[in-house]
Amino acid sequence: MLCAVRRRTTSELRRMLCRQNINPPPLRSVSTAAGAGAGAGDPPTRPGPPPIRVALTESAGRGVFATRAIGAGELVHSAKPLVAHPSPSHLRKVCYYCLRKKGSEASLISDEIAGEDLGSNPTSYYFCSESCVEPSKIFYEVERRADWALYDDHCRLRGLKYPLMVKRLACMVISGAVPADTVDILQPATLPQEALLEMEEEFALLRHTFKKASLQDELIAFLTKQWYINVLARIRINAFRIELVGGSHEDLFTSAAALVGSDVSVGNAVYMVPSFYNHDCDPNAHIVWLDNADAKLKALRDIEEGEELRICYIDASMNLDARQKILAEGFGFQCNCLRCLSGD
Prior knowledge:
With about 350 residues, the protein is an alpha+beta fold. The protein starts with a helix and ends with a helix. Helix 4 (about 150-160) runs antiparallel to helix 6 (about 195-210) and helix 6 packs across helix 7 (about 225-240). Strands 1-4-10-9 form a four-stranded antiparallel beta sheet, covered by helices on one side. It has a four-stranded mixed beta sheet with strand order 2-3-11-8, with no helix packed on it. About 30% of the residues lie in helices and about 15% in strands. The protein is globular. It has ten helices and eleven strands. It has helices spanning about 5, 10-20, 130-145, 150-160, 160-175, 195-210, 225-240, 250-260, 320-330, 340; strands at about 30-35, 50-55, 60-65, 75-80, 85, 240-245, 265-270, 280, 285-290, 295-300, 310. Residues about 1-40, about 105-110, about 115-120 and about 250-265 have low confidence and may be disordered. About 35% of the residues are buried. The protein has three domains: about 5-25 and about 85-240, no CATH class; about 50-80 and about 240-315, Beta-clip-like (Beta Complex), CATH 2.170.270.10; about 320-344, no CATH class. One of its GO terms (cellular component) is nucleus. This is Histone-lysine N-methyltransferase ATXR4 isoform X2. It comes from Ananas comosus (Pineapple). Pfam families: SET.
């Protein structure tokens, strides 16, 4: 059923937000694109589309296929997240919007949105630049109105990260920046009964927090238990761990190797196109994050036109039994890639 927020026009939403003293941000679309920019002195040009297409596979649902030959080491495309959030251990260590680490080359503007009244709950966060302050308003204008102590403590004590992403998405929906069904295109996970019971407690905390913030009922009409479980089920199986490696596009092979065995996750994010990449224990492509949450996908070897691009969801250095166990329990499928079928 369509929620009340989605049925309202943009102008109606904006009038309602203004009555609640929430400044509605300009609506924007999130896109994935690749291609070189214009050279110095050249007129600006639109980047070309990435050399990929999304299509149905014979046995694994949707997949990503090459529309031309792709050379080893080629940057296939970049993608900005639909939703991203710092990990609890990095809340004060990375940009609250793009997840760039503190102390990097980006300029520090403030530990809070400069020059703005944070209201009755002045929890400050780091934003690495003015270019992150403005887009952060799609969730922060709403988030800062509420007291998140109970919800955040619940997540921290249980080591939960995905409910924080749901919280951010809910704030984006309330602000009118995105529709409530933003992540419906992503594949959902099958959830065990114990997970559903835990989600009910998290949902109750989330809705209670918004209600205490005195938001109008119409603004949170979408926030039902069904919506919460639907979103969390999709985030759980589609979220990427953001592990910043630094460097440049040319260093991606070295960067990929540096990640093995490391624990450098600064947060989690979900994306549109990257979520369509299927798994292979001997992948031909790899996703790396250089200095923020923008995902960079690069070919690990030559890829032929029409060939499916596949990434490895787990640590490919594990043995066959360990890989199969993690993929079955964490992703809900048995891997039948050539490497697994060969017994490697």
